[in-house]
């Protein structure tokens, strides 16, 4: 590749995140592509984690067993999501387990909202 091609491709990677995994290193090395995908999956998990932690703490005070089951379901679903993300195909990221993890997270958020509402209206 010429320096001009590298410059154009790097600029395209910065401009469009969808092309980020097609940067020069990723095109030249499948290991770099997998590493890039693993980093993005890890970052996405870190971005979602605060959305899980606070509702889990709130709903866990009133419903500890269902909250533990929901958090365990979400954690296992993230393993499947990460393995699918590393494989490179967008269709492999989803699936039943990923859907169950999302459902568990929505359940935690709704349970935390209900618990907070009952505490606010009932005076804890």
Automatic annotation (TrEMBL):
Species of origin = Agrocybe pediades
Q: Which residues cross the membrane?
A: 102-122
Localization, UniProt: Membrane
* Gene Ontology CC: one annotated term: endoplasmic reticulum
| Coarse class of the protein's main subcellular location | membrane
For this UniProt record, the keywords arranged alphabetically read as follows: Membrane, Transmembrane, Transmembrane helix
Quote the protein name from its UniProt record.
Uncharacterized protein
A Pfam family this protein belongs to?
MAPEG
Q: How does it sit in the membrane?
A: Multi-pass membrane protein
Q: Does the keyword Membrane apply?
A: yes
């Amino acid at each position: 590749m010429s320096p001009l091609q590298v410059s154009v491709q790097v600029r395209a990677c910065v401009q469009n995140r969808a092309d980020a995994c097609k940067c020069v290193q990723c095109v030249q090395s499948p290991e770099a592509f997998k590493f890039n995908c693993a980093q993005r999956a890890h970052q996405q998990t870190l971005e979602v984690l605060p959305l899980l932690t606070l509702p889990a703490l709130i709903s866990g005070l009133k419903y500890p067993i269902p909250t533990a089951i929901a958090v365990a379901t979400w954690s296992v679903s993230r393993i499947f999501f990460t393995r699918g993300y590393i494989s490179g195909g967008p269709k492999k990221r989803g699936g039943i387990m990923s859907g169950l993890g999302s459902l568990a997270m929505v359940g935690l958020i709704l349970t935390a909202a209900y618990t907070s509402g009952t505490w606010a209206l009932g005076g804890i």
